[in-house]
Specification:
This protein is of the alpha+beta class. The chain has three domains: 291 residues, no CATH class; 115 residues, no CATH class; 59 residues, Arc Repressor Mutant, subunit A. The strands form four sheets. The chain has a nine-stranded mixed sheet with strand order 2-6-7-10-1-11-12-13-14. A hairpin with an 8-residue loop joins strand 8 and strand 9. Helix 4 packs antiparallel against helix 5 and helix 14 packs across helix 16. The protein starts with a helix and ends with a helix. The model has no long low-confidence stretch (mean pLDDT 94). Bound molecules: adenosine-5'-diphosphate and magnesium ion. Adenosine-5'-diphosphate binds next to strand 1, strand 10 and strand 11.
Amino acid sequence: MIEEELLAKYEAVIGLEVHAQMLTKTKAYSNDINAYGARPNTNVSVVTLGHPGTLPKMNKKTIEYAIKLGLALNCKIANHQYFARKNYFYPDLPKGYQITQDTTPICTNGHISVTLKDGTEKYIGITRIHMEEDAGKSIHDVDVYDTLVDLNRAGTPLLEIVTEPDIRSAEEAYAYLTEIRQLVRYLDICDGNMEEGSLRCDANISVRLKGAEKFGTKVEVKNMNSIRNVHRAIEHEIERQILALENGETLFQETRNFDALSGTTSAMRSKEAANDYRYFPEPDLQPLFVSEDQIQAVKSEMPVLPKALLKKYTSELGLSSYDANILISAKSFANYFEELITHTKNYKSAANWMIGDIRSYMNAKGIEIEEFSLTPKKIAALIALIDAGKISNTIASQRLFPELLNNLEVSPEELAIKNNWIQDSDEGSIKAIISEVIEQHSAEAERYKNGEKQLLGFFMGQLMKASKGQADPKAANKLMRETLDKL
Ligand code: ADP
Ligand code: MG
């Protein structure tokens, strides 16, 4: 670790390049199945291999997905586009080139605002989003002697999202990636799984003296397989660059590899050794024209986005932003809540059940909300029972909820009745018990009358005992106090 003082002398400048693998059924320019985890080299046709005489064909879905993301990130959508060939040799790139978009990316000039830990909003510009295809995968760690090649991934559609150099810390990068991942999941265009590589991030990092106008020399760091590791890589890289500069060294533009084990970066290749990709317009694909109607059609089918839900939950439903953020963290979780609040108007209680008992249960079982067996309607019925004073919160949470999970066919009310958990909040019957209890304990009643108000607890204990725990404690407490005070 380096000293705070040194860190404070410098400012980091960071731009992120994110690759999101699109969740299409087939690949970007062929009919090969696009699926993770299939047997190696089974989803590979001659188009993917770029055999002479074969022609790529645009997958329409990828355009729709790109527009969706572009709209969500406030981008301008380009009407006229063409594809470009990026030429390079790699064992897992059978065609010898990648089809991408070079000078005419489908989305440009966007922005996103992310919320940091201290609640401040950070604005991050989106330079561009373009469509391209992925390469295959070289596998170095399965065979002792050889590198294996799996071409299933070759030709799968990617969206590359490039930010402006607006990011200033590892924390901001972390918040940005968390929001991007949440966004692509809400849009259903990418599963956002960084461990499996369907969402990947390269971080461009430089440092400059605070107050300096010119950016420093940037270094690109690759191979972080989690958002946490992007954070670690950036923190490390900032310190490394500051120490180098303080040492009088000159930084040069290079690509560095992040090693998760040590948490450090090491040189991969310098800019001088970088490829000249010889981009040229892809001759096998027609230029793409995206009409305003097409853009409008995508717009009209946009799902509700997390930001909008957050606003609804805090300003319309009156929930805290802490609660709201947990509810929107995953789309499926938010969907459950959305359905739940169609059955109950007690939003706070609905949120509490989801954030409390339901989430604890999911965590304990290691399941997602999709696998949770109680319907939103049932949870709403449970909330209604509590609100009607028929069962106590404690009974609901500790007894009825777990019991419901074991009796999926039965309604909460039936189960509560069957187990004698229904509490009595009927004034008449509670009053009768109160009279009885006071009569049996006239000495204590006298003491209460003479000012020993703490005896209320004693009387409540007697009342709950006499009602065999069935009296609604809230109603009983109120009635008991009233009765005693009138003595
Ligand atoms: P390259 O041509 O090397 O790919 P680009 O200009 O396309 O560089 O930028 C790639 C990414 O690097 C973008 O996200 C951009 O915001 C970021 N970037 C550019 N200059 C710097 C810099 N000096 N420091 C940090 N990030 C930078
Ligand atoms: Mg670039």
